[in-house]
Amino acid sequence: MDLKGLVNKARAALQKNPTLIDKGGDAIDKVTKNKYSGQVDKAQDAVRKAVGAPGQGTQGQTPPANPGEALPGQQSPQPRNPQNPQ
């Protein structure tokens, strides 16, 4: 399996079970004794947004069928040129 396939598999798993995002953040908070809880919360929100998982700010919305599509109210990402990656 290539890296893209692995990323897509992880994305699908997090979309189906977004509580894994919370559990991961909770584990980090426990180990760091909440020292970085603000940063952990921001990272959790970024992961939810990146995978299209429901969560804070997207509660009740369904994830996009195509990971390149935007949720309602979001700008769609710019298409990447495979010849000139950014």
Explain this structure:
It holds the Pfam family MT0933_antitox. Residues 47-86 are annotated as: Disordered. InterPro entries: Antitoxin_Rv0909/MT0933. The chain is mainly alpha-helical. It has a domain at 3-51. Helices cover 49% and strands 0% of the residues. It has 3 helices and no strands. The chain has helices at residues 3-16, 19-31, 37-51. Helix 2 packs antiparallel against helix 3 (37-51). The model is unreliable at 57-63 (pLDDT under 50).
Question: What ranges have pLDDT less than 50 throughout 5 or more consecutive residues?
Answer: 57-63
- What structural class do the secondary elements suggest? mainly alpha
**Approximately how much beta-strand content do the residues carry?**
under 5%
Average predicted local confidence, pLDDT:
78
Radius of gyration: 15 Å
Number of helices: 3
**Molecular shape:** elongated
DSSP, total strands = 0
| Share of helical residues | 40-55%
N-to-C terminal Cα separation, in Å? 24 Å
Order of helices and strands: HHH
Largest sheet: none
Pfam families: MT0933_antitox
InterPro entries: Antitoxin_Rv0909/MT0933
Protein name: Antitoxin
Region (Disordered): 47-86
